[in-house]
Amino acid sequence: VGENVVYEKNKQVKVGEKLGFGKCRLCIAIRKGEEYTGAQFLDNKRIATSYPVLVKQYLNKNQVNGEIHEISGSVEIAPGIGLADAICDLVSSGSTLFMNGLKEVETILESQAVLIQNLQMSEEKSQTLARLLFRIQSVKKAKNNKYILLNAPNENLSKIISLLPGMKSPTVLPLAEPGWSSVHSVLKENEFWDIIEQLKEAGAQGILVVPIEKMIV
Fold first, then answer.
1. Judging by beta carbons within 10 Å of its beta carbon (0-12, 13-18, 19+), is residue 72 exposed, middle or buried?
2. What pLDDT was estimated at residue 217?
3. How far is residue 162's CA from residue 46's CA, in Å, rounded to a whole number?
4. From 26, 85, 106, 126, which residue has the greatest number of CB atoms within 10 Å?
5. Using CA atoms, how far apart are residues 215 and 217, in angstroms rounded to an integer?
6. Domain architecture of the chain: domains with CATH
7. pLDDT tens sequence for the chain (217 residues)
8. 129, 16 in Cβ contact below 8 A?
9. Please, which residues bridge with residue 119 across strands?
10. What's the burial of 6, exposed, middle or buried (CB within 10 Å: 0-12/13-18/19+)?
11. Strand 114-118 to strand 13-18: parallel, antiparallel, or no bridges (unpaired)?
12. Sign of the CA dihedral running 173, 175, 181, 186
């Protein structure tokens, strides 16, 4: 379920794990030609939304008296047909807002798919959930890492190893060709390209990059 739904419904549940997909944001949007001066812009304005609870919380936090109009679906058309002065809706790319002459001005909530759990579970169910979470986390960790294999000249081996932290340390195996070793390691996705360039400069050759299906640490 999306975080936006969890917080809007305000049920007595716990977010057990953020799943890393279905990412979007709950945003305030106004007409393109208008100048947004902060939350006070919404004072005495009509706000169309499918998330009245979250919008009300935002308005109260900023001490703003807005008029909330709950709408189910196609919220973005409300300003264009005169039903609202602003909207609060889920945004992914922003293209729908653009096509309806609107612009984002404030983000209320960053949302993604989450696994939720009952606050009162039996011991048996808690153990089952723990096993499920363990498996989910192993897939998530794998998604953020790459397995790398490369050939390294022994005279540059120390430098190359220093660039590859691995899970504990890189695996180094001698090759049939004298003076060369095979190095295996794991790289974080967000560090990948910077380190690859450094490895090439250090003399690494035959670099192979393999996706990891699951990662258990």
1. exposed
2. 76
3. 59
4. 26
5. 6
6. 3-111 (3.40.190.10), 145-211 (3.30.70.120)
7. 999 999 999 888 999 999 999 999 999 999 999 999 999 999 999 999 999 999 999 999 999 999 999 998 889 999 999 999 999 999 998 899 999 999 999 999 999 999 999 988 899 999 999 999 999 999 998 988 999 999 999 999 999 999 987 677 899 999 999 999 999 999 988 888 899 999 999 999 999 999 999 988 7
8. yes
9. none
10. middle
11. antiparallel
12. negative
Question: What three-state secondary structure class fits 166?
Answer: coil
3-state secondary structure 6-33: HHHHCCCEEEEEECCCCCEEEEEEEECC
Assign 3-state DSSP to the chain and report helix, strand, coil percentages, each to 5. Answer: 35, 35, 35
**Residue with tokens 């947004």, as numbered in its chain:** 36
**Cβ-contact 173, 181 below 8 angstroms:** yes
Q: What is the CA radius of gyration of the chain?
A: 25
The pTM of the full predicted model, rounded to 2 decimals, is 0.75
Q: How far is CA 58 from CA 28, 105, 162, 165, 184, in A?
A: 10, 14, 48, 43, 50
Q: What is the token pair recorded at 134?
A: 């363990």
Helix/strand/coil for 208:
strand
Q: Is 64 helix (H, G, I), strand (E, B) or coil?
A: coil
